[in-house]
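C-alpha coordinates please, single chain.
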Amino acid sequence: QVQVVESGGGLVQAGGSLRLSCAASGRTFSRTAMGWFRQAPGKEREFVAAISGSGYYTYYTDSVKGRFTISRDNAKNTMYLQMNSLKPEDTAVYYCAARFSPSVGSDYSSPTAYNYWGQGTQVTVSS
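Here you go.
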Protein backbone atom coordinates (compact mmCIF):
# COMPACT_ATOMS: atom_id res chain seq x y z
CA GLN A 1 0.00 0.00 0.00
CA VAL A 2 1.26 3.46 -0.91
CA GLN A 3 0.07 6.67 0.63
CA VAL A 4 0.59 10.07 -0.93
CA VAL A 5 -0.33 13.38 0.66
CA GLU A 6 -0.25 16.74 -1.08
CA SER A 7 0.31 20.11 0.54
CA GLY A 8 1.15 23.66 -0.42
CA GLY A 9 -1.92 24.82 -2.28
CA GLY A 10 -3.51 28.20 -1.72
CA LEU A 11 -4.65 31.49 -3.20
CA VAL A 12 -2.19 33.55 -5.22
CA GLN A 13 -2.40 36.45 -7.62
CA ALA A 14 -1.66 36.01 -11.29
CA GLY A 15 2.07 36.09 -11.89
CA GLY A 16 2.80 34.69 -8.46
CA SER A 17 4.35 31.41 -7.39
CA LEU A 18 3.49 28.37 -5.28
CA ARG A 19 5.32 25.17 -4.45
CA LEU A 20 3.34 21.99 -4.00
CA SER A 21 4.72 19.04 -2.08
CA CYS A 22 3.77 15.38 -2.16
CA ALA A 23 4.94 13.12 0.65
CA ALA A 24 4.88 9.39 -0.08
CA SER A 25 5.15 6.31 2.10
CA GLY A 26 4.75 2.56 1.85
CA ARG A 27 7.06 1.80 -1.09
CA THR A 28 10.69 2.39 -1.94
CA PHE A 29 10.35 5.95 -3.16
CA SER A 30 13.21 5.83 -5.64
CA ARG A 31 11.46 2.94 -7.42
CA THR A 32 8.23 4.90 -7.77
CA ALA A 33 7.56 7.16 -10.72
CA MET A 34 5.32 10.07 -9.79
CA GLY A 35 3.04 12.54 -11.48
CA TRP A 36 1.00 15.68 -10.95
CA PHE A 37 -2.47 16.08 -12.39
CA ARG A 38 -5.08 18.79 -12.00
CA GLN A 39 -8.81 19.08 -12.31
CA ALA A 40 -10.74 22.30 -12.76
CA PRO A 41 -14.48 22.52 -12.05
CA GLY A 42 -16.48 20.90 -14.81
CA LYS A 43 -13.40 19.55 -16.56
CA GLU A 44 -11.65 16.21 -16.75
CA ARG A 45 -8.51 15.49 -14.80
CA GLU A 46 -5.51 16.50 -16.88
CA PHE A 47 -1.82 15.67 -16.82
CA VAL A 48 0.57 18.36 -15.60
CA ALA A 49 4.01 16.76 -15.08
CA ALA A 50 5.73 13.44 -14.40
CA ILE A 51 9.08 12.35 -13.03
CA SER A 52 10.92 9.04 -13.03
CA GLY A 53 11.99 7.31 -9.83
CA SER A 54 15.55 8.57 -10.20
CA GLY A 55 14.41 12.07 -11.03
CA TYR A 56 16.43 12.01 -14.23
CA TYR A 57 13.47 12.04 -16.62
CA THR A 58 10.77 14.71 -16.45
CA TYR A 59 7.81 15.46 -18.68
CA TYR A 60 5.37 18.38 -18.86
CA THR A 61 2.18 19.31 -20.57
CA ASP A 62 2.74 22.11 -23.07
CA SER A 63 0.74 24.71 -21.16
CA VAL A 64 3.11 24.63 -18.16
CA LYS A 65 6.48 24.22 -19.86
CA GLY A 66 8.87 26.96 -18.81
CA ARG A 67 6.68 27.89 -15.84
CA PHE A 68 6.43 24.71 -13.72
CA THR A 69 9.25 22.48 -12.50
CA ILE A 70 8.78 18.98 -11.13
CA SER A 71 11.45 17.57 -8.85
CA ARG A 72 11.92 15.04 -6.09
CA ASP A 73 14.07 14.40 -3.05
CA ASN A 74 14.31 10.65 -2.61
CA ALA A 75 16.02 11.02 0.75
CA LYS A 76 12.89 12.79 2.02
CA ASN A 77 10.35 10.65 0.10
CA THR A 78 8.93 13.87 -1.28
CA MET A 79 8.07 15.22 -4.71
CA TYR A 80 7.61 18.89 -5.56
CA LEU A 81 5.94 21.08 -8.15
CA GLN A 82 7.34 24.59 -8.32
CA MET A 83 4.79 26.77 -10.09
CA ASN A 84 5.87 30.19 -11.33
CA SER A 85 4.14 32.83 -13.45
CA LEU A 86 0.78 31.42 -12.43
CA LYS A 87 -2.25 32.20 -14.54
CA PRO A 88 -5.97 32.14 -13.68
CA GLU A 89 -6.33 29.10 -15.97
CA ASP A 90 -4.01 27.18 -13.63
CA THR A 91 -6.78 27.23 -11.01
CA ALA A 92 -7.66 23.65 -10.14
CA VAL A 93 -7.36 20.91 -7.58
CA TYR A 94 -3.88 19.45 -7.97
CA TYR A 95 -3.36 15.74 -7.37
CA CYS A 96 -0.21 13.75 -6.71
CA ALA A 97 -0.06 10.22 -8.16
CA ALA A 98 2.29 7.26 -7.83
CA ARG A 99 2.84 4.21 -10.02
CA PHE A 100 4.37 0.77 -9.48
CA SER A 101 7.41 1.40 -11.60
CA PRO A 102 10.57 3.50 -11.48
CA SER A 103 9.93 4.39 -15.11
CA VAL A 104 7.27 6.88 -16.13
CA GLY A 105 6.37 4.72 -19.13
CA SER A 106 4.96 5.84 -22.46
CA ASP A 107 1.54 6.36 -20.89
CA TYR A 108 2.77 8.83 -18.25
CA SER A 109 0.10 11.40 -19.17
CA SER A 110 -2.82 9.03 -18.57
CA PRO A 111 -4.44 8.93 -15.12
CA THR A 112 -4.96 5.18 -15.55
CA ALA A 113 -1.18 4.64 -15.53
CA TYR A 114 -1.02 5.53 -11.84
CA ASN A 115 -1.89 3.25 -8.97
CA TYR A 116 -2.25 5.61 -6.01
CA TRP A 117 -3.60 9.11 -5.61
CA GLY A 118 -3.62 11.80 -2.99
CA GLN A 119 -6.67 13.70 -1.85
CA GLY A 120 -5.74 16.84 -3.77
CA THR A 121 -4.84 20.40 -2.87
CA GLN A 122 -6.63 23.49 -4.16
CA VAL A 123 -4.73 26.10 -6.15
CA THR A 124 -6.58 29.32 -6.93
CA VAL A 125 -5.04 32.03 -9.08
CA SER A 126 -6.82 35.37 -9.05
CA SER A 127 -6.63 37.82 -11.93
